[in-house]
Design brief:
The protein has about 130 residues and is an alpha/beta fold. It has one domain (about 30-125): 3-Layer(aba) Sandwich (Oxidized Rhodanese, domain 1). The chain is about 35% helix and about 10% strand. It contains six helices and five strands. α2 crosses α6. The N and C termini lie far apart (about 35 Å).
């Protein structure tokens, strides 16, 4: 049995917020949805969402987004302990494949998690910093 914390439920958004989310590419209920484009991901991370990088250690060491939380996909069960409670999560990998798996797992645990389409390359092309 694991001691994973229960995510804090987010309050139900107003109709106006839901419409804004729908027209800006987010889900209609103001959650992130299953996947997110890099330009929108930059905005939501700047707005307080957590950025989770699920690449392997060698990939992380070769360059990562400042402020990102690193948990390799193979250790995804450790992610809930490392993620801030009650905040959306943008999940990043190299291309978007591993992040889809991780985001789906986190959504199953109650997190508002979306996979970054196009991975770290799309993040950089959209103006996201990598060090």
């Amino acid at each position: 049995m694991t001691n994973t914390p229960t995510p804090t439920p987010t309050p139900k958004p107003s109709m106006l917020r839901r419409l804004r989310g729908f027209f800006s590419g987010g889900a209609a209920d103001d959650t992130l949805g299953a996947k997110i484009k890099a330009e929108h991901a930059l905005d939501v991370v700047r707005g307080g969402a957590a950025l989770l990088d699920v690449r392997e250690n060698s990939e992380w060491k070769s360059g990562h987004a400042p402020g990102a939380i690193h948990v390799a996909l193979g250790d995804i069960d450790k992610a809930p302990r490392r993620l801030p409670k009650g905040r959306p999560v943008v999940v990043m990998c190299a291309s978007g494949m591993r992040s889809r798996t991780a985001a789906k797992h986190l959504r199953g645990l109650g997190f508002d998690a979306a996979s970054l389409s196009g991975g770290i390359g799309a993040w950089q092309r959209a103006g996201g910093e990598v060090r």
